[in-house]
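Exercise 7. Given the components listed, write out the predicted structure of the assembled complex. Treat all entries as one system.
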Amino acid sequence: MRNALVLYFQYVGVSIRGQLQYRASFVMQSIGEFWAHVTEFIAIWALFHRFGSIGGWSLPEVALLYGLVNTQWAITDMIGRGFDAFDTMVKSGDFDRVLLRPRATTLQLAGLEFTLRRLGRLAQGLAILVWALVALNILWTPGKVALFVLAVAGGVCLFYGLLVVQATLCFWTVESLEIMNVFTYGGLETARYPVSIYRPNFRRFFTAVVPLACVTYFPALALLGRADPLGSTLVFQYAAPLAGLIFLLVSLQVWKFGVRHYQSTGS
Amino acid sequence: MRPYWAMLSARFRTLLQYRAAALAGFGTQLFFGVVIVMTYQAFYSANTTPQPMSLEHVVSYIWLGQALFALMPWAPDADIRLLIRTGGVAYELLRPVNVYWLWFSRALARRTAPTVLRSIPMFITAMLLLGLQPPASLASGLAWGMATVCAVLLASAIATIFGIGMIWTISGEGLHRLVSPLVMLLSGMLIPLPLMPAWSQTFLRVLPFRGLADIPFRLYLGDIPPSSVGPMLLHQLTWVALLALFGHWLLSRAMRRLVVQGG
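Answer.
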């Protein structure tokens, strides 16, 4: 295990050094990613400017959700490139080489690339998050701090799990399925507002199947000390982020099953 | 005119082959549309102050945006990016045609073919099931059709500028990464422009970007009466002309310092 971690950080180090060879490109891309999501938040701001609130949530409260889910996704996107771009590896047959090495396939893919340019997006998510936390005056207790960390970690696990499932599907389809974007990018779009505003079936899907609400909406309720119109208890709100971890563990099992069914394209 | 038309129709027919991508795009767009519509319903439900646009109109506006999503100038065309990277741009320069209009034709095909594939199922689904209203009247429908043609020209002019900008940066990052998020915000694709703050309306009205989405959509809804279609088309076409001039100038500047990548 320790050995695996050392190897992982070596992979990361190589990847970072490689990307820093193109410094100007890295800076430009980071700024680009930052800016793209700034305009997105301007649009949200404009809607609050006009309507005041959504489902009883104010702009800083929604910004907490927005910052949380964008931070989670940006971190995942930074460390999950190997799974996200897995279709190219299946198509080119490079996955055969991965299988030949005496290391776990998941470790090798996780270490394939540490995508530095996503720092731009991470910075945007964190900036909104910090603004929200300052504007909200949350009374921090050790429990709330722990919940916050757990929520971020749970969200990263959940999104990572989605990328693993997306990669696993490539074993059968070869081509990456764009429809998985519905869960990742669509999930980002969904989780930026409180799930209580959505229709029941839609809400249930993002709570029970892809438990995005468990790593954003429910912990946010506990942090804000809001009563839940859906009737969840405080204990549930604190435990909910664990659903992200469970999702990742299940996805890794699905991945193992997929690897056993891998047939090389032979190219 | 003929070579440009040939380029347009050849690219158009090639791009029509990507039906699986169009289907996936349709599924994604449908999902996003459903989520966005639910958020507007939530915004409107708790708010009693009169808004510049009714919820029914906003819903239709959103679905028009989802249907015509592929029309937007997101990024330079992948084939121009490849031409510049591989040095293939040298062949483009050898052709006895105007490179600007050649690239414009490519951009035009890149906008229209995927839009045709994606928008038809989206129109049918959204109209039958999801609250997209038909055009306010026959005249509104006709005005929308004309404004959409101009929107395609406008989008192609912007995409062509992005393509030319790549001559400077090769990797294809840069100009479009900074400009296209702004295009989305100012065109009405992110939120309907009438819902933007009142003080911003003056700027939005002058800028070219509303010609991409806001003008055609509101003509469709009758929110802009069909009688004022003239000034709207004039606004769009003036900007097409200005951007085409700018594109020509930018291309001539780029050519002066062009280094063809060998290989």
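Discussion: The mean pLDDT of chain A is 88. Chain A has one domain: 2-260.
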